[in-house]
UniProtKB/TrEMBL annotation, chains A, B, C, D:
Residues 4-141 form the Semialdehyde dehydrogenase NAD-binding domain. Pathway: Amino-acid biosynthesis; L-arginine biosynthesis; N(2)-acetyl-L-ornithine from L-glutamate: step 3/4. It comes from the Bacteria. Its main location: cytoplasm. The active site is at C149. Coiled coil: none annotated. This is N-acetyl-gamma-glutamyl-phosphate reductase. It catalyses: N-acetyl-L-glutamate 5-semialdehyde + phosphate + NADP(+) = N-acetyl-L-glutamyl 5-phosphate + NADPH + H(+). InterPro entries: AGPR, AGPR_dimerisation_dom, AGPR_type-1, NAD(P)-bd_dom_sf, Semialdehyde_DH_NAD-bd.
Length: 342, 342, 342, 342
């Protein structure tokens, strides 16, 4: 059975990545592509790497007839997304890739995003989209809120450890290195090639990055009490990839065993043998997440490192994985592409 | 029907790229992987990006039992390849990715490669592997010689023009820009990241690059008289991609029409609308080749530009395309992956 | 004697490069920095790499008192520059880095830039700023028009050959590869890191690049008859550098001898031994230009290649070299910095 | 007065960087360049970016007559350095850039480097080369041991804090990101451009990096009791630069004040205003080190970040700074070059 798919916000990187992945999906057909600023153009004009595909031209959201659509991906900017989704038909399945429905508490949303939520009642029905941990809820969800790409990476290493109680909850530091495409296709001076190439730096230092809202929400829920980690993202001159280096207190062997057990049956999350560590180059362009654990020289401390592709497992791949669940497709369909190296 | 596949030279980039592509092929099963220098290791150790695949461990070539193998890819270094292939079973289909069987004339081989050919009798049965132009011969070949990646790119823009007689045969200049992975995984000082990054240069200037042997052979055969082009490759600080800028004499509209007609039914070669030009970023990681034509401001001159991925369409993708033909599979199977951008 | 220097347009890359170079100049003092969009900020805020220097804060052009200024660099956008310069005091020496005063013929200016020149009378007194060829005129000039960075690179290889009559004037092809910083600091989608990194392409193909106006003007003047070359620039994922590959008709030995003689006493233009070719990595960050000549395998044809840094020798370094001449300083002062490699 | 300088190991990156810097030094003359593997070649052949300089050809170490040499830089590989230096004339001033004389305790040396020290008696007279903290000893030293580039970066942020007692000595984590040139010019598969470009990873995780020997030695000496930090380096696809992100316990305002006071009169170490953080792109190619401090959202925790260029301030620039002191030159001579951006 073929599912009819719409993508709103198709002119951004996550929109393009969705199209790339769905192109190999045997049971999905893209029937509408919306991008208000580029309406009227073909997808091949906006993204020439997709020109070989038979795709509908870009239209405005208003032009879409949702009656025949089974599932809609929203890859719109934050804030726009909540306004659009609030007005979509109630019988439409939706996977949102924006930040708008990630935080369940409206106060937390307002704290991290600076404005009151425009659709708090829709927020209530959203399921958090970290597939491996919300799988059953996602199957029956109408609206799934895709996670932040940094938030996903950090949770892959920390959730099982927090749940199992094998690390000190008050001593978690996450030092994250992310590629440039995570910042999207927006026109900012600090995203120019001449600015970024050959240099790197930290940003949102000291606990101001919005993905901390997700960490706080999820880790506190898991622990049953407030958990606040330290989190510093860094921008690296590469297009794709997130490498999260976690510093935790606990026994490395136990930490490794906990993670290995947690992901033993997961198709996309790979725990490396004890002592090995991952590289972003080995997951580039794929839906895989590689995790490594190393004991520190100081007893009772460990370093846990995860690598994933921010556009795939961190965003559009996750979205497709969730859509598969919502449409009762095998979860891995369209997502087993091998990483591209070199 | 599943075909059993062996890959010799699996520890190089073209070997890894073959594995990446075949992983999505429904009717091929990799049953042997050889890499003498890394025999005993798993493919995941040598190429961690392939660790999710269920693959045989690396062995030496001598350890392979070829009796159950249907087709063998040889991704060995030049010169080694001819020695190995001369000793492979006669009933084995072979796609060679080295330079060893590209030149039909033993004297030409010796001129460009500096040593007499070790298996000239095997050379005689080799079919040149530029799929779009040798398709019928490839279907029934025992041994197909994969083209040089630069040679493929130049031929895609020039062959139809030479055949149609729409350009001046004595005034062809090809200025080519290629990514680093084309040089392979060999340990050379000039391939270090610190040497290459952020700089670019020409190499093999003045007509000394070995791929000229292929151009001379193929263009002269097409024209029915000697054709010698000018050819200058440049090394660009990017991993994948070849961009070939051809300067030719002829009417741009006629040139465009000739190319458009030649590739009208080709699944992988795309001729852009008149005046548009390609970018390597839009074919990265895929088997597509994009071609553009622009008229120069001086009448009677045109610029013809092609872009392809040296590891895919220029090498391992081409090899798989040829293997599909040899095994009576649909030609595009396993090769319709969309390019990875950004 | 210390010269007081103003820089208009200090918030762009060429402005910053001027400051970097002048910082090592013993006899120049920067007394005014203008950047209307960032007036009020310190230079260290706009360019943190210059924060260790003792510099005046950015002001608007209107705020500058030019009475004490000896020389003014204009690193403003095209079109703005002509309007500003027309209103500067008549006794001020000016080095303009924009395109506004490069073309002597108002009709040529309008043809290439699309608008009538706003200060044609000022244009008449401008001296073309290619130092090695206009040195004496520059010494006594009030206004020097810095060349295009691509135009400079092409002229370094072609001017001596045209003057000496050793190449065929109707058969000149220039295939140029330039780094990203040449496009400046403007906010354009195609200059984003995620767009450019790891890919490359041609642009302004077919004779539409504005620097052709300079080539036409200069080469025709040298030859005493119209000369029109073919010119294709390509954008390469590196920050700095231009590599110009010239295809010419003539005897390579004579071509090499002509270039070697032309630059024998030049401090910044280095002709490599016959057969060697340059790389942008070996001139990065410096005012040097390296030139190489190779004979093609086809008699009577040669490849001539030049490498320089677009921001230094192609723009701000050239500007400082000219300013030295205008202020009767030794020409090389502040410009002997070695290239930065790796 | 001109000092005669020899450089041993001139064919590596730190050797070339020394030549680049000394080229602008008014009172140093390079009179001997040794590189055993490339003896007989000119420096311009080995490093074409230095071809404009008038330099002696490369010789073997044995060929050097040290009688007229005032100071010798040793940029040799570890282990070779100690053997060579043990046999140099006793009246020669030496700045060693290798790891051989950094650790004062022979047992610590053997622990971190795996072999007994070949010249322990020479070790005893070596002064640790972190200029800002050993300035007076360096002035009168015969042998100065250049620090590890990572070790220098970490010490710049941590030494003043440990000395002042404003951070918890048992809770120091240093997450470091370094560019590729720090690994030198050696032929290793993992340093190839195709391997490194567009990916990043941690290495020597868990307390195995040799620069920890320096941290342990220096921090314990400062604190008067054993101090063991956690340290994880990461390899970033850029040529130059180290960014060290330190996680410490203490009051951010006090930490910032302590660092600002410590470096108030230092010419090369810049403490940014509270809350600002550095980027490697703003110190590239220069001898500057930028330091930033940010308070974490959790009280009593701070993030301290330093950026420097591993080849300059982290190695050859530091060496020249020390040589200036040893030769009674102004400390900053030859080192005030502005960073190169973009």
């Amino acid at each position: 059975m073929t599912h009819n798919i719409a993508i709103l916000g198709a002119s951004g990187y996550t929109g393009a990545e969705l199209v790339r992945l769905i192109a190999t999906h045997p049971n999905m057909r893209i029937t509408a592509l919306a991008a208000n600023s580029k309406a009227g153009q073909s997808m091949g004009q906006v993204f020439p790497h997709l020109r070989h595909l038979d795709l509908p031209d870009l239209v405005t959201i208003e032009e879409i007839d949702f009656s025949g659509i089974d599932l809609c991906f929203c890859a719109l900017p934050h804030k726009t997304s909540q306004e659009v989704i609030a007005n979509l038909p109630r019988d439409l399945k939706i996977v949102d890739l924006s930040a708008d429905f990630r935080l369940r508490d409206p106060a937390a949303y307002e704290k991290w995003y600076g404005n009151p939520h425009a659709a708090p009642e829709v927020q209530q029905e959203a399921v958090y989209g970290l597939t491996e941990f919300y799988r059953e809820d996602i199957r029956s969800a109408r609206l799934v809120a895709g996670t932040g790409c940094n938030a996903a990476t950090g949770q892959y290493i920390l959730r099982p450890l927090i749940s199992a109680g094998v690390i000190d909850l008050d001593e978690i530091i996450l030092d994250l290195k992310c590629g440039v495409s995570g910042a999207g296709r927006s026109l900012k001076e600090n995203l120019l090639h001449a600015e970024l190439s050959e240099g790197y730096h930290a940003y949102s230092v000291g606990g101001t990055h919005r993905h901390l809202g997700e960490f706080d929400q999820e880790f506190s829920a898991l622990a049953g009490r407030p958990v606040e980690i330290q989190f510093t993202p860094h921008l690296i001159p590469a297009n794709r990839g997130i490498l999260a280096t976690g510093y935790v207190r606990g026994e490395a062997a136990q930490i490794h065993a906990t993670l290995a057990a947690a992901y033993a049956n997961e198709p996309f999350v790979v725990v490396l043998p004890m002592g090995e560590t991952p590289s972003t180059r080995h997951i580039r362009g794929s839906n895989f997440c590689h995790i490594g654990v190393v004991a520190d020289r100081r007893a009772g401390r460990a370093i846990v490192i995860a690598a994933l592709d921010n556009l795939t497992k961190g965003s559009s791949g996750q979205a497709l994985q969730n859509a598969n669940l919502m449409l009762s497709e095998p979860e891995t369909t369209g997502l087993m592409l091998a990483p591209v190296f070199p």
